[in-house]
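Q: Structure tokens for this one, please.
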Amino acid sequence: MLVSGGNHSDHRGTLSFVNEFNFLNVKRFYTITHHDLSVIRAWQGHQHEVKHFFVTTGTFLIGWVKLDDWQNPSTGLNVERQILRASEPAVLTINGGNANGFKALEKGSTLMVFSSMDLEASSSDTYRFAEHTWKL
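A: Here is the predicted structure, written as tokens:
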């Protein structure tokens, strides 16, 4: 689910916003900065944890796939993709039941990730798959 925001500029600067995003179930957040455009962070899945993605600088390609088996998922599953840009504020929500991966499309891009679980709970709900399991 994508929640779009906007920008407002005047002589004081630019304000970026996503007013319709609700932080109700967010337990923690972190940022990831990619300096190398060849780096792909993929694939990490969660059965229950919900992740919300927001780009603060640059541009990211984010992909996600609904898993059919948590131990041995099919490699032919459909990958959904979304490009998020800091210049077009939006929050992308990926619900539990999916694996996700992402890569920066501009040097120095920074991605902010909001999670529905604290670190301990998230650790027991994390499944990792090889980078090339699905094509980002």
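A few notes: The mean pLDDT is 96. The longest strand covers residues 59-66.
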